[in-house]
Amino acid sequence: MTCSRNAPISESHAQGGGQRADERRLLIVEDDPVFAASLRYLLNHAGFQTEIATDGGSGLALLATTSAPFDLLLLDIDLPDISGHDVIRLARERGFDLPVIVVSGDSEIDAAIQALRLGAMDFVRKPFETEILLYAINRALAQSRLEREHSAAQLRVNRSERLHRFLVDASPDIIFILDQTGRVTFVNQRLKVLLGLDEATVVGRHFSRMVHTHDRQRARYAFSAEKLSETALHSFELRLKSQADAPGFRYFEVNLAAIGLPEQAAGEAGEGRDHYYGVARDTTARREVEALTNYHANHDALTGLPNRVLFRDHLALALIRARRNNEQVAVLHLNLDRFKHVNDRFGHAHADELLRQVGERIQGCLRGGDTLARFVGDEFLLLNSFVWSERDVLLIIDRINREFGAPFTVADKSAHLTMSAGIALFPQHGETADELIRHANIALYHGRLSGGHGHSFFMPEMGESTDQRLQLQGELRQAIEQDQFVLFYQPQVGLRDRRIRGVEALVRWNHPQRGLLPPGDFLALAEDAHLIVSLDEWVTREACKALREWTRLGIAPPRVAINISPRHLEEADFVERFLALLAEYQVDPNRIEVEVTENLFIRDPSMVALKLQSLAAHGVMIAIDDFGTQYSSLSYLQKFPIHTLKIDKSFVWEIDREYRQHAIIKAIISIAHGLELNLVAEGVETDEQLRFLEIQGCDEIQGYLISKPLPRAALEGLMRQEQQT
């Protein structure tokens, strides 16, 4: 070295590398101890921290073991163990990334060139000027810092690019870029996930090539250069081709925004061209939900048939066509007969399955232009288009009836179902959809009054009577809520002793305007309006109250007969509720007689048997009302727990006029005696009827000859009077 130890060191040299010199650690690998010490003194005086290694191996060891890394390596070429060239090479192989300056007395130019090729930043020949060495050190440190900063910046850029690419590829949407001609220049990996398409098959091609055939013409127009140039924002709904879905496409909402990208091809610096950033959002699931929602809004969930809303739309369209072509249209309101009984027998789940089968069978009877809809419950609406006469409608009904001839099967049980129909024709019976539906309903209602399993065409007079009946039904519902009913009691007298054997409870409606109405004026209405169960329970409750009071007064009759409607008895919990009422009023079941009609036994014999047997097991008496007028089979008299037969008044009234009725009454009396059943003749009004029944051995009579139905107070007076005799 030629410089003095006290030579000043420039500030620029000490500050080389943008960092304080005393923060820089230098490693000196030099086998000459005197030169190494001088060099160390010089560098320490310049503010650097230094370490000395006397051979190559020691230098490499210091690089590997020191706790603080070195910032620069000052290296001699000629070392006692290995050459400086080997030290450079081994340091690089072992991952020591620090700048190297060779300080050597070797005068061979080849040694310097080889050192530089191995990665040394500079070569300083001994002896050297201090300024030259310090300049070389600071330049190497500064260059090393710049390289590290550049590497860090590049790392951040690469990391940012990976992050943005990850975010783009992780997007739930297909993200793409189009050039100004509509060709795809970039697309994310979501393309593969959603559509099963590879990026290579799309990039460079026009976007319309991704579009399904049904929308391709529209896409070519929407993504044409002329259309894209009109505005910076575009939005479309398209079907894109999909290799991952059975239909071959998925629905997407596509949004485009114009952007400027740097020119990537040859051109002037900074020049740009228009591109379009696009996002395609998969709307298939939303469309499917909308379609499903729309389907459920217009179809019955149970049967899958159109509902009333969709039926009305179809009917409105059919009426427009019929007016234009001068055609007729028929609306049929169909109703299953006695389906509540089937519902109770099979349970709701199996009854629902029956309704599905019913819909399928009716659907199989229709023509292509007809529409079947489920109206409500067990009721259906049928639109019969292109009708030329009533005969066309009757042919449809006949096909349905023939189809219903075969039993329905569910849960290994069979059921025979019948259908009633009300029919309204356009234009005879109405001009609008609402009129035709309402008039078909009215026709159905009137047809069912005759017993069901038939059909009725609408007539204008039906509407008037229906309005009256509907008004009366509303008043009847209000009457139950306001307790407008009263019980009358008609005595049943023994023919041998002329004493009261029982009384039959008969309900009357104390109508606010019409006065006291007999059962014939409102029981059918109560049955049709599903109010009969509530009315029956009211009668049972009032009869139990009266019997409890009569028992307390000591004037109670041997029994009280209560009429129970078939619909009430078909209720699943009828027996439990009936017995609960008896228990509530502390009534002896042996004092109660339940009267049922014969037609009950053809509805569901097994169900009826179980319920009647349960009542009889608790002591309740069972009577058959109107015997001989309906059910022709007498086998139920042996199968069911029957205690009393009541001869219908229609037979009794003919005693005075026709001898043929005598034979029928004699047969009934003979049957009752043969089966040891009590026998009550209803409607006895003349002495001749009384004498005939007495001679034939009838047990009891009931009728105006003995007493008309009496209010409770009048009956109590009669029973007190009888007890005094």
Strand order, largest beta sheet: 18-19-21-22-23-24-25-26
* Main pleated sheet: 8 strands, mixed, barrel
Protein structure class = alpha/beta
Second rung of CATH, namely the architecture of the largest domain = Alpha-Beta Barrel
Name the CATH class of the largest domain. Alpha Beta
Counted up, domains total: 4
The CATH fourth-level homologous superfamily of the largest domain: EAL domain
Query: In which range does the helix fraction lie?
Result: 40-55%
Distance between the termini: 160 Å
Strand content is 15-25%
Topology of this structure?
Blueprint: H1 11-14, E1 25-29, H2 33-45, E2 49-53, H3 56-65, E3 72-75, H4 84-93, E4 100-104, H5 109-118, E5 122-125, H6 130-170, E6 174-179, E7 184-187, H7 190-195, H8 213-222, H9 225-228, E8 233-241, E9 249-262, E10 272-282, H10 284-298, H11 308-325, E11 328-336, H12 339-346, H13 348-363, E12 371-376, E13 379-387, H14 390-403, E14 408-410, E15 413-415, E16 419-426, H15 433-448, E17 455-457, H16 460-481, E18 485-494, E19 500-511, E20 515-517, H17 523-528, H18 532-553, E21 560-563, H19 566-569, H20 574-584, E22 592-597, H21 605-617, E23 621-627, H22 636-639, E24 644-647, H23 649-653, H24 659-674, E25 678-682, H25 687-696, E26 700-702, E27 710-711, H26 712-723
Parallel strand pairs: 1-2, 1-3, 3-4, 4-5, 16-17, 19-21, 21-22, 22-23, 23-24, 24-25, 25-26
Antiparallel strand pairs: 6-7, 6-10, 8-9, 9-10, 11-13, 11-16, 12-13, 14-15, 18-19, 18-26, 18-27, 19-20
Helix pairs in contact: 3-4, 4-5, 12-13
